[in-house]
């Protein structure tokens, strides 16, 4: 059972993560970006690599998932701003792995999805939404590099979305219509559909690129000469 000090520490960590995320969204400077870029590998290693286990007491499980969601949300917000290309993504993966086995973002995100999709609760739903946000960023960064792990992640997200559909419907009805959480674009189902459509678009772009004829320099010179003397 957690001591009072441990419970207070967790609450403070959750509050600090939420405050830091809101500040970073609203007031972004170059110095902040550099600092966030340095802390991101440590934060993601804590969330994605180190084990997170449910506590035996139900009330403590809720605290754990709130803490996990707060740290994950902060990580994704930083990720969306500082990881802007595939090279950044590859470097981040190496920093997280720290010389260990190759790190797969899609594989780790799939684990998060599967761990939070069996039971429909508000905290699990929030984690799934945040994970889908990161998946969308990942698809954009991967470009045409759509592998089996990314396809598998999307399949897991689609199943999770179906499992959470009724739960999210109840939550929407219970909240004020002025709340941003009732915006259809913020629903898990809508986020997953956005990710799926983006994935299909990237796959099509990659396919089109692979079927586009490649003109060699020799052919280009020959065509140019022919056009001059024709």
Automatic annotation (TrEMBL):
Superkingdom of origin organism: Eukaryota
Coiled coil: 185-212
UniProt keyword annotation of Coiled coil present: yes
Keywords: Coiled coil
PANTHER family cross-referenced by the UniProt entry: ARM REPEAT SUPERFAMILY PROTEIN, OS12G0449900 PROTEIN
Protein name as annotated: Uncharacterized protein
């Amino acid at each position: 059972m957690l001591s009072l000090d441990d419970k207070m520490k967790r609450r403070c960590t959750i509050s600090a993560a939420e405050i830091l995320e809101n500040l970073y969204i609203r007031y972004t400077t170059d110095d902040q970006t550099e600092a966030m870029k340095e802390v991101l590998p440590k934060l993601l290693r804590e969330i994605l690599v180190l084990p997170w286990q449910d506590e035996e007491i139900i009330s403590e499980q809720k605290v754990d998932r709130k803490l996990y969601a707060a740290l994950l949300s902060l990580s994704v917000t930083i990720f969306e701003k500082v990881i802007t290309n595939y090279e950044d993504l590859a470097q981040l993966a190496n920093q997280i792995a720290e010389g260990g086995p190759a790190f797969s973002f899609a594989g780790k995100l799939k684990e998060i999805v599967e761990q939070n999709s069996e039971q429909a609760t508000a905290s699990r739903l929030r984690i799934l939404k945040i994970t889908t946000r990161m998946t969308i960023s990942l698809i954009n960064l991967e470009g045409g590099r759509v592998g089996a792990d990314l396809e598998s992640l999307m399949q897991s997200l689609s199943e999770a979305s179906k499992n959470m559909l009724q739960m999210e419907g109840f939550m929407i009805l219970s909240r004020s219509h002025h709340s941003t959480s009732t915006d259809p674009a913020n629903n898990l189902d809508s986020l997953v559909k956005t990710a799926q459509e983006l994935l299909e678009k990237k796959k099509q772009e990659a396919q089109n690129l692979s079927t586009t004829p490649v003109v060699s320099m020799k052919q280009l010179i020959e065509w140019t000469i022919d056009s001059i003397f024709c």
